[in-house]
User: What shape does this take?
Amino acid sequence: MTNFNVTPNRRDTLSVKWTLYSKDILPMWIADADFPAPRAIRDALHRQVEHGVLGYEEPSRAFNEIVARRMNSLYGWKVNPDWIICTSGVNNGYYIAARALCSPRKGYAIQTPVYNHFHELGESNRIPKRIAPLAKLTQGNKLRYEVDYDALKKALKGAGMFLLCHPHNPVGKIFSRGELTQMARLCIEKDVTIVSDEIHAEILLGGAKFKPLASLSREIADKTITLIAASKACNVPGLAAAFAIIPNEELRKKFHAAALGMSCEISILGLTASRVAFSGKVDSWLAAMRRHLTSNRDLLVDYVTRYMPDVRATVPDATYLGWLDFTQTEIDGSPFEFFLSKAKVALSDGKKFGEESAGFARINFGTSRMLLKEGLDRMRRAMGGL
Ligand SMILES: Cc1ncc(COP(=O)(O)O)c(C=O)c1O
Assistant: This one.
């Protein structure tokens, strides 16, 4: 069984996480964990490489049945294997969706703060971005976010797509059934297609439960493109493999047409890893990984509460990402710059998740307990508390 507190040295690899900054910087930014992938996945990859021929491969009917069975066994969601289309990543999936559903006159709605690439989608494609900020609630030093339905309603006006992040990066929220239903109702009323990015769905913390949006009703499924991948939970994001589940035939055809020329291909190794992950063979590894991440989340929240009382923090239900609010502290200017220069810790800069989040930063706790503690100690020292 993997010991999640033993992390391989990644400094001498081409890891983006570990090489973007100089060697004195502890990287706690990009959503990439420091754990080796589950043994069963690595064994399957070895076998594939040993076969020797690494040609083009495509998901077969049998492969799509494995994915469909997983949706049924985890969520009771009956997916027809014909609804599944592979993409070379979840980002690739919503870029294709935007090509199918948006234009310079028809934008897309997002709920901020949200994953930086959701912002870049509009900027790089000249598609108007329509922002519906989440409502921020604070209780003591804990931060929580809720849907602002009025803001969402406004943002959906003139939008071709609502790009939902569920579970939400960076705030770690799993939307409730009630919230999902109400958001979907607004989209159906306004004839806006929902693209639900569910890449973090299997990184559940502390017994949290997850339901895919499209599993709630046939009517909602008909209006939804669901994007899934094994990449985050099994920590194989570099293998570039993801899947779009599109029950509505017309929408599926549109997606297919928009995918032409957008490298909607999947790598043979990505397909191999996904097959093992979705088959359920690594479920006990996933359970252990969730226990480790839950304990890291608790360490993070306890540490902030105890030693950084002016910092507010989310208590994420999912993901290995914490969202920290430094606006009540004495840090002047960007917390990202502050911790990079004074603590030698690279967080993710809050302003990349939304203009209103300049005083925030995201921390990645998908690492060993020791490195998490080291990062927090460095931050505490830089703030004058150690
Ligand atoms: C919400 C979300 N969507 C998509 C991605 C990227 O997915 P992929 O590497 O499959 O393109 C990430 C990575 O951090 C993410 O957090």
User: Anything to note?
Assistant: The mean pLDDT is 96. Residues 55-278 form a domain with the Aspartate Aminotransferase; domain 2 fold (CATH 3.40.640.10). The pocket of pyridoxal-5'-phosphate is lined by residues 31, 89-91, 115, 165, 169, 197, 199, 229, 231, 237, 242 (CB under 6 Å).
